[in-house]
Every structure is written in structure tokens, then in C-alpha cells.
Amino acid sequence: MNVDVLIGLQWGDEGKGKIVDVLSSHYDVIARFQGGPNAGHTLEFNGTKHVLHTIPSGIFHSGKINIIGNGVVIDPVILNKEIKKLAERNIDVKKNLLISRKAHLILPTHRLLDAANEAAKGKAKIGSTLKGIGPAYTDKVSRIGIRVGDIEKANFKEIYTALKNTHLNIINNLQFDYSEYRLDSDLFDDYEKNWFEAIDVIKNIPFIDSEVFINNCRNDNKSILAEGAQGSMLDIDFGTYPFVTSSNTVCAGVCTGLGISPKTIGEVYGIFKAYCTRVGSGPFPTELFDEAGAILRKTGNEFGSTTGRPRRCGWLDIPALKYSVMLNGVSQLIMMKSDVLCDFDKIPVCTNYNYKGNLIDYIPFEINSNELSCVYKEIDGWKQSLEGINSYNNLPDNLKKYIDFIEKSVNVPVSFVSTGPDRTQTIKR
Ligand code: GDP
Ligand code: IMO
Ligand code: MG
Fold first, then answer.
1. Out of 4, 13, 75, 235, which one is annotated catalytic?
2. How many whole angstroms separate alpha carbon 206 and alpha carbon 119?
3. CB 24 within 8 A of CB 64
4. Is 128 touching ligand 2 by the criterion CB < 6 Å?
């Protein structure tokens, strides 16, 4: 069977965790293919909220196989915390979680390097989650990284120490103070101790050659859902560089992050919020600095699932959405958080950019607020709560018009509309 994919089309936090959980009942295997603990995927059911960082969002469905793919970077400490939290809820991940031997490890010193990199950038800082993502991927590409499979070697400790010392050589020679960015200032030794304890815990989870496993699953006619992290506008190649993450968040990342052929990609679900948010620095054309932005933040509870930082909020950006649809080959759209727009009389949507005097509808090489402004079309709001509505036909007419407008603008159908954080607040068209 083909591999279906769920990709964030904006700057992350679109609601991927919720929808992967909703879709999981239709799949045998759920696999993360990139990113790491910079992700925070929230899902809610039976009145309880769960946030996952590394573990795929299919984990709450017993009998489903969840895979952390080779393209993911893993911090054992954070993974261990996730495992413990799940255990408190009677979920034993040993039963349905598998980890790729080729996934790379985030070392405690990667976190220090992340902090140092941000400090060095000063005002131009990326606003990284400081989880060591960039430095871990850097080591992977530099061909000096440590992989999950290395844990199985007798000399793992030596391998670890060699890379740690390489990092310390850099860190100890820094000519500037980066303490402001350190998450665990003087607690490095504790973190390292926890790291090794966590390694011992994750050794109990099967390590697999996931590319072979996943292709065998396909041959056995098992259905597979690939769960993206971050969003297309944070993609290392196509996002708002350099304010991006360090992996390919777009659909192409599924092939390298799981080891499957492009020919095997099936449905590409593109998920987006009915408005836009971004956390961290970088261009955000439709960003609001007024009361409307504050309302979106408050009503949408727009605070980071990983860092708790307030998210920047703005109106829906069609040029960015079109660009993401193009990059990913999106076949179905999933619109989230329509409930958050309920109180607005008029909802502006950015239809084009005015860029250096020309009207464009794509993301240019660089977005600079002096050279780019947004052209908006106002759509009538629906001014009605969506509570209790569970069929598409019963949605307010103006919300359906909003959806029609988006579909016509990007030329892809919206097949799900989310009206609240809970699993049940999801309308399939
Ligand atoms: P992810 O990183 O893409 O999984 O998204 P996050 O979990 O970081 O952020 C999405 C937030 O929106 C979470 O707090 C979800 O519980 C919440 N959420 C998801 N869908 C909806 C929705 O339709 N309406 C509202 N109000 N909240 C939602
Ligand atoms: P999910 O999967 C939103 C942002 C950070 C920062 C930039 C680089 O929950 O949607 P990094 O830690 O990768 O060095 O940060 O990317 N970022 C996210 N923003 N959601 C995420 O993940 C993000 N992961 C990273 O805020 O601007
Ligand atoms: Mg998130």
C-alpha cells in the first residue's frame, strides 16, 4: 500500500498531533520522519490533553505500530520523559513503538552548541527551541553524528566521549557569553547523567532497520501514515531561510526520513490553521500587532506546546499556502481552528503580496518588510459558535464561503474542518 503523509503547511503548530490521532484509526503504522523534540504535538480526548515531542501521535491507539524514523533526531532525556508520562496513563510503549537504528542522537553538548549559536547571532537569532536540533543535524551532515544503532556497540561510551570532546573544544574556546541561552546553565552534569539513564531506558524499545521494516509493511499491504513535524515554511530549503529548522519538513523529507520511494507516496494531507501563527523570529507577512492579533492569541490559546512562548498571530496567507501546496503536492486540505475566528465581523485574507512594486502570489527569495506588503480581501465572518456542530452541511454559510474561497484560491479540496481541540471536534466532509 501507499504511504499517506500529513504535512504542516504554515510555520508549524497547525494541529498535526490532533489530526494524526484522529486519522490513526485508519492506519496500521504511524511514522515520524523528521524533526525532533523541537516539535510539540498536542492531542486531546476524554478531557485530557497530551503533548508529544518525539513519539508519533498514533501511540494512543492500541494495536497500531508507531515508528521513530531515521530522519528524526532524538534526545533520549526528552524521549524518556515522554515514555514515563505515557506509562502514567497506562500506555506501555514497548508494545507499539519502534526506533530506527539510523536516527541520530542529540547529545547534551548539542544543546550547549545550540545556545552558543543563538548567542552568536545576537539580534538576528532564530528563536530556536534550543533543543539541540541544528547542531545534531549539522553533525549528521558533517558525518560525525552518533546514531541509535551505535548504542548497541560495546564501545558506545567511547564514541560518545569522542564527540562530546569535539564539542567541548569548540565550546570552551568561545569568546562570548552564551549563558543567557542555556536552558540548563550549571546543570550539565545532571543532564548528562539523565542522558545515560535515559539511554538505558530506551534500550528496552526495539531498535529496527526501519527502512526495511516499513517497505516490508507496504509489501504486506499495511497502511502507513507519515507524520510531519514543523511546517513547510520552516523547511531548510524552502522555508523563510535562515529562520527555519534544520530538516526537510516538506513531503520530500518522507522519502529520505523513512527510506521509501517517491512512487509510494499516496494521499498528501496538507494541514493549516484558518489563520497563521509563528513562534520564534523571521518573516511573517500577515502578522498582526493590534487588538485582532491579541484576540487570535487569546482565543486560540496560542502559546508554544514545547517552549510555552507566545505565538505571533496573523491572518491567513494564501500566497504562502499556495507555495506549500505546490511544494508538497497536497491532495487534500485540513483546516484547523475555525472556531477561533467566530467573533470577527470581517476576516481579512492575504491574496497577494505587493513585492518591489509587483503583485505576486508566491514566496520570493527573501521577505523583507520594507519591500513586501500584503493585499487583503475581506470575507464576512460567521459570528456564531461552532459548538455541537458535527456535519459539514450544518456549518454556518459564511464559514463555508470562507472554505470555498480558500479551495478556489489554492485549487485543492478541504476534506476536514476542525472546530475545537478535542478528537471529536473534527468534521469530515
Ligand atoms: P502541532 O504541533 O501541529 O501538533 O500543533 P500544536 O499541538 O503545537 O498546536 C495546536 C494547538 O491547537 C493545540 O493546543 C491543540 O490542542 C489546539 N487545537 C487543535 N485543533 C484545534 C481547533 O480546531 N480549535 C482549537 N481551538 N484548538 C485546536
Ligand atoms: P511542531 O512540530 C513551531 C521553530 C522555532 C524556531 C525555528 C528553529 O510542533 O509544529 P529549532 O528548534 O528547530 O532550531 O527552531 O523553528 N520551530 C517550530 N515552530 N512548531 C514547531 O514544531 C517548531 N519546531 C521548530 O520556534 O523559530
Ligand atoms: Mg506544535
1. 13
2. 38
3. yes
4. yes
Does the annotation count 41 as an active-site position? yes
Task: Name the active-site residue from 21, 41, 235, 339.
Answer: 41
pLDDT in tens, the chain (429 residues): 899 999 999 999 999 999 999 999 999 999 999 999 999 999 999 999 999 999 999 999 999 999 999 999 999 999 999 999 999 999 999 999 999 999 999 999 999 999 999 999 989 999 999 999 999 999 999 999 999 999 999 999 999 999 999 999 999 998 888 887 776 655 888 999 999 999 999 999 999 999 999 999 999 999 999 999 999 999 999 999 999 999 999 999 999 999 999 999 999 999 999 999 999 999 999 999 999 999 999 999 999 877 888 999 999 999 999 999 999 999 999 999 999 999 999 999 999 999 999 999 999 999 888 899 999 999 999 999 999 999 999 999 999 999 999 999 999 999 999 999 999 999 999
The set of residues, in sequence order, having a beta carbon less than 8 Å from that of 239 and lying 6+ positions away, is 232, 233, 245, 249
Ligand 1: does its nearest atom lie under 6 Å from the Cβ of 418?
Answer: yes
Active site residue 61: no
Position 54: which residue type? T
**Ligand 2 contact via 240 beta carbon (within 6 Å):** no
User: Could you tell which of 38, 336, 414 is best to mutate to test the pocket of ligand 1, judged by most ligand atoms within 8 Å of the CB?
Assistant: 336
Of ligand 2's atoms, which has the minimum distance to the CA of residue 131? Answer: 12
Number of helices followed by number of strands (H, E) in the chain: 11, 20
pTM for the whole structure: 0.97
**Quick one: which of 110, 102, 328, 80 has its CA closest to 228?**
328
